[in-house]
Amino acid sequence: MMLxxxxxxxxxxxxxALGDQISMSIxxxxxxxxxxxxxxxxxxxxxxxxxxxxxxxxxxxxFLAVNIYGNWLMVFLxxxxxxxxxxxxxxxxxxxxxxxxxxxxxxxxxxxxxxxxACVLKHDHHCWFPGTCIGYDNHRYFLALCVYIxxxxxxxxxxxWSFVWSVKGEYTLLNLLSLIFPLLTVALGHETWYTFCxxxxxxxxxxxxNIFTWVLVLQVLQILHGQTRYERTQRITKYDRGLWANLExxxxxxxxxxxxxxxxxxxxxxxxxxxxxxxxxAS
Length: 283
Fold this sequence. Notes:
Blueprint: H1 2-15, H2 18-41, H3 43-46, H4 52-77, E1 97-99, E2 104-106, E3 111-113, E4 118-120, E5 125-127, E6 132-134, H5 139-168, H6 173-178, H7 182-187, H8 193-224, H9 229-233, H10 243-251, E7 275-277, E8 280-282
Antiparallel strand pairs: 1-2, 3-4, 5-6, 7-8
Helix pairs in contact: 2-4, 4-5, 5-8
C-alpha cells in the first residue's frame, strides 16, 4: 500500500496538469480541515461531555470520511487506459478508430484525454479533484465518491445549522443577507471575522451539496440508460441493456455492496473494449 501511495504521489507530482494538482490539493487539505471542523470544533456546541449522540456522530462522520477519501484514492490509483491489452491491427472492427496522439488503435466508447495524455476506456469525463479521467475501471469509485460527498454535505449542513445561528444571532435581514454577501456585512461592521468564516463555510457546504447532488443525478441518469457523458449529450442509447445490466457494468457483480467499502472487490462483466449493443456484441 505504501509503495502504491508513493508511486501515486510521484505520478501526481510529475504528470498531472497544474489545474489537477491545485484541485487535488484543495480537495485533500480542505477535507482534513472540514473533518476537524465537524468532529472537534462544532460538537463542543452540542455536547459538553462524551455522550451516545456524540459517539454516533463521530462514527458516522468517520465512516463518511473513510469512504470519501478511499474512493477518491481508488479513482486516482485505478488505471483507465487498458495498459497491456492487445488491440487489433490492420483493418479495424466496427467502432474502432486510430488515435493520432497515442499512435494506436482506439476501441469503441474510448476517448483521448489531452490532460491524461492517454486514451481512456469508456471515457466519461476528466475530473479535476482526483486529477484523472473517469472511465470503465474506476467509474464505480467515482459514483460512490459522489454519493458519500452528497450525503456528508447534507448531513453536515443540517448538523451545523443550529450552531451557525447561535453564533450569528437572530434571523434578521442583515444576517440572512450575510449568507449571500458575507464579506459585505464584515465591511459594514455587522459581523466579526469569526462569524464571516463560519458563514463562508456554511455557504461553501450548501454549494458543495448542490453541485455534487447535481453531478450524482446526472451520473444516475447516465447509468440508467447505459450512457457516458458524451453519449448522454448526443442522446445515444444503443448501449442500454436494462437497469440491472447497466448497473453491473459500472458497479460490478456485487452491485450496491460496493458502496459499503471502496476496497470491496467487484469484478466487472466486460473488458472495457467490447460492448453489447441492444443484445448484440459490438467489437
